[in-house]
Amino acid sequence: MNTAGIVTVVEAQNLAEELKTDHCLLIQVTSLEVYQQAHLPGAVLVLPAELVSGVPPASGRLPERDRLITLFNRIGLTSASKVVVYDDEGGGWAGRLGWTLDVIGHRNWRYLNGGLQAWAATGLQMTQGQPAPVVPSDNANLVIDESPIAEIADVLAASAGTDTAIWDVRSIEEYLGQKQTAARAGHIPGAVNYDWLLLKDPNNAQRLVEDLDDILTQLGIHADQSIITHCQTHHRSGLSYMVGRILGRNIRAYHGSWSEWGNREDTPIENPAIG
Questions:
Q1: Which member of 28, 89, 108, 125 has the greatest number of CB atoms within 10 A?
Q2: Using omega within 30 degrees of 0 as the cis cutoff, is the peptide bond preceding 268 cis?
Q3: Using CA atoms, how far apart are residues 234 and 151, in angstroms rounded to an integer?
């Protein structure tokens, strides 16, 4: 059970004021090109590829422990770091990083609402150029916490019961089997669908939409239920995982996601497209 508590959302203007008197480890999860064009002053860069195993077919699974140690040493993460995560797309990669921080037991992280787009829309200072040198840290004793992670066995148990909801944040076309992204199309039996794109507002600089708790309730995901969320590679479901944490829900992420489930022959699926 993931009992990590509640993640705080911070608005751009409030963060800018805070940074005048306090230090945070600002982590931007984008491509190097985007980072060179614009980043928050003092932010470090994490590439999306650093957060995934890259091993097909389930390329979005958690990287090996040694790779995580290398990553967090490089950006200077320590147990005392007050982390703020953000990206340029409204929370997918930021949430994936937040999930990874939970997995290594670092609970002290917040989300910059709307990320780079909201910071720019607020008219705040941004920096260009290469990442600045960072004093490396020592995470040799890093321990993997399994509680935020869902595996196939967990999803099978959730599919067969009622205590845990399965939240699929892929597109409706993928969910219905109309768009095939693996050897098999469709969805996990019992899963409910709500596209990750609907969780953020493109007309409000990609900030989170309001009434997120009501959205989950309308999906039939109630406060007394646990949640397992997934997408294709646990990128889009980085956002839904983070939303669950913001709402204080007991949520895990199935990091194998559909690229694992849909490429196996022994996992049950529902595919309305073929009846």
A1: 28
A2: no
A3: 12
Q: Are 229 and 155 in contact (CB under 8 A)?
A: no
Q: Please report which helix (H) or strand (E) contains residue 254, including its range.
A: strand 251-254
- By C-alpha distance, which of 52, 118, 48, 96 is closest to 242? 96
* 8 A C-beta contact, residue 274 and residue 177: yes
> What domain count does the chain have?
2
Asked if the structure places residue 189 within a domain, the reply is yes
Report which DSSP code applies to 39: B
Angle at CA of residue 235, ends 90 and 129, nearest 5°: 60
C-alpha dist (Å) from residue 97 to 165, 203, 214, 220, 242: 23, 25, 25, 27, 10
| Domain co-membership, 16 together with 72 | yes
Is 24 one of the annotated active-site residues of the chain? Answer: no
For residue 83, what are the β-bridge partners? 25, 109
- 97: pLDDT confidence band, cut at 50, 70 and 90? very high
Instruction: List pLDDT tens digits, range 213-226.
Output: 999 999 999 999 99
Domain that holds residue 213: 149-261
SS3 238: helix
Tokens describing residue 10: 């911070």
In this structure, what CATH number is given to the domain that contains residue 162? 3.40.250.10
The catalytically annotated residue of 231, 239, 251, 253 is: 231
Q: Is 101 in a helix, a strand, or coil?
A: helix
Nearest in space to 166 (alpha carbons), one of 84, 29, 267: 267
